[in-house]
Amino acid sequence: VDDVCTKILPNTTSLNTLALEANDISDAGMEVLVRVGFEHCPLLTRFDLAHNKFSGAGWNLFLSSGLPKCLYINNVYGVKLSQFVNNKLDVPTDFKDSPNEDIITYVRSLQGDSLVETSRVKVMIVGTGGAGKTTLVHKLMTNKFKHNQFEMTDGVDMHTWEHEKVEFQLWDFGGQDIYMNTHAMFFETRCIYVITWNSRASSTSDIVKLLEKYFQDVLNRAPGAPILLVSTHAKNVLPLSSESLEHLCAEYPTILGYVHVDSEHSVGIEELKTKLLNATRGLPYVRSNQPSKFV
C-alpha cells in the first residue's frame, strides 16, 4: 500500500477506480493512505477496501480523510456508508442503520430527482413522571386539554405536529424511574431538548438537581444541542426564580429559554410554541432540500 499511496496516487488525476481489496491493509497502511490523501484523484468513483485488516482506529482515519465527493454517490466496498452519516455524507440521520444500497439510492436521488424543501426537527421531551409531558404534547398538537392523571407513558411515544410550516417530531419519554437510564440511548445532536418538571411537586433545590442530571445526559450524548426548560402546573405556583435560572444558564449555555406553563389553563403555551419555532431558526439542519420520493 505504501507504493500505491506514495508513488501512484499523486500522479493519477484520471483515476476512477481504486481496488485495494484483500491486501492485508492494517491501521498503519490506512495512516499512509490518509496522509497522502485523495485530492489528486478528483474522478475517483469506485473504491474497494474489502477483506483487509484495519481496525476501528483505521476506519476512523478513513472517515476523517478528504475523499472526493463523487465517491460518495457510488459504492465504497468493504466499509459501511452509514458511518458517513453526519460526517461526510449529506444524508439524514434516519439512514444511520441503513445498508449501503439504501444510502446510495438516497444520495443518487439528490442528483436526479426533483427536490422539495422540508422543515423538520426532533423535539425530545423529558422529565420526571407526572410532569405532564403527555398532556403538554396533546395541548401543543390540538390546543385542547386532556387530563391524563392515571395514564403513564411506557417507554417513548412519538407524534408529529406541524406548526408554522415546520414539522416537529415530538418524542414523549416516560418519566418513571425504570425508564430514566434508557433515555440517553435515543439522544442525538440534531434535536431540541425540552426538560420538564412539575412545579407543584418539587422544591427549588430538587429542581436544580433534577435539571443538572438531565443536562449531563444531554451533554454526554448531544453536546451543543439546544435546551428549553419548561415547568408545568403553573397555575398559582411561582416560576423558577431568576437567580436559579441565571445560575443554570451560566453553567449550561445551550439553554435557550424557560417557560412556565399550565396546559389546563393555557398558560405559557403560545410562548412555548414561539420559543420552539425560534429555536429552529438557528439550526441549519432543520430546513433542507430532500428528494421528492423521500418526503
Automatic annotation (TrEMBL):
Record keywords, A-Z: Nucleotide-binding, Repeat
Record the organism: Spumella elongata
Q: Which domain of life is it from?
A: Eukaryota
**What sequence ranges are listed for the domain Roc?**
114-283
**PROSITE patterns referenced in this protein's UniProt entry, alphabetically:** RAB, ROC
Q: Has UniProt tagged this entry with the keyword Repeat?
A: yes
Extract the InterPro entries matched here: LRR_dom_sf, P-loop_NTPase, ROC, Small_GTP-bd
Q: What is the recorded name of this protein?
A: Roc domain-containing protein
Q: Which NCBIfam families match?
A: small_GTP (TIGR00231)
One example of the protein's molecular function in GO is: GTP binding
